[in-house]
Amino acid sequence: MQAQKFREALEKAMLGYTNKQITTAEMIAKLLELAKWVREAKQHGQDLGLSTEEVAFYDALAENGSAKEVMQSDQLRLMARELAELVKQMPKLDWTQRESVRADLRRQVRRLLAKYGYPPDLSEDATQLVLKQAELSTGAGA
Question: Which of 5-19, 91-105, 120-134 has the lowest mean pLDDT?
């Protein structure tokens, strides 16, 4: 999620610069701002005690603000760790092309969300974000 937001912000800045909507100095300022954002995101993961992969799942689960309010950060951290482990155990083949593997992962993610009491009305969106993150983390979505 963070990588997608970063890419979009960078593309927007580059487009503005290319179209001469912003000056070179403004572009440098935007790049410095993006670098600060990356440092803060990395620090956030370290503060949570999560690996890069785990932070990606944590962010996917916490993307919906109300879910983050309802659930404790510790629960989201535990869920993120389990999701990262779940994805590591997935077959190394291109599982995004095999619907049965995707369906199995979807089921496992839904079970994990229910196990931790993730708000049911938000679980489908969270499931889709987690699946997308899983694809990106295995390189299949690239």
Answer: 91-105
Show the tokens assigned to 105: 């992962």
Q: How far does the chain reach from its first CA to its final CA, in angstroms?
A: 14
C-alpha dihedral (42, 128, 138, 14), degrees to nearest 10: -60
User: At residue 99, what is the residue type?
Assistant: E
Q: Residue for token digits 């535990």? A: 78
Contact status, residue 17 vs residue 31, Cβ threshold 8 Å: no
Task: Report yes or no: 130 and 60 within 8 Å, Cβ to Cβ.
Answer: yes
106, HSE (Cβ side, Cα atoms, 13 Å): 12
Q: Residue type at 10?
A: L
Domain segments of the chain as ranges = 2-48, 52-137
